[in-house]
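Cross-check.
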Amino acid sequence: MKTTIKRVFVSLVVACLMVFANVIIAQAGGPYYISEAPLTWLSGSGTPTSVSTSSCYSGTCKYMYQDTGNPATRRWARTYANIYQWYVYRPDAGEAAARYWWITYRNGVKDSWYVNVNQAVSKGTWAYLGYSDYLPNNYGELRLSNQCVSGYWCGGLRVYWDEMRYLTSP
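Predicted model, tokenized:
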């Protein structure tokens, strides 16, 4: 009888540990969300205008009008380590094409690329920006400017900074 109780107890402990480990591993990869609220200024002039509207992912987002003279570049807060896939939300109010700059850092060395996203199409959805094969990495960052994107109409449209999300490689 004692042996049976011990076996059941050990089996329950092992089962609980396995469930706990699976939950931790599944959550280690995200998705993680970063709001546009604390954007960091990097270059250019002007300040994004905040708007509160249901067309933005969390009810608020920021925008600046397209600029060909001295466009402003802002970045979202930095990510956790081992950033793997990036997404950005296209608000329902989106009008312009935007050029995102995705950067991952590994021991002081950076890997980066640009992705153009037309914010005027597939509104209210997540745009997939790609994945990093630069793994492992220490962290990543996503940047956006209100500069006009070559090949798209540029007539003073709004470029939006809205929520971004990412996954990590566990």
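Confidence is low (pLDDT under 50) at residues 12-27. The radius of gyration is 21 Å. Passed to J.P. for a second look.
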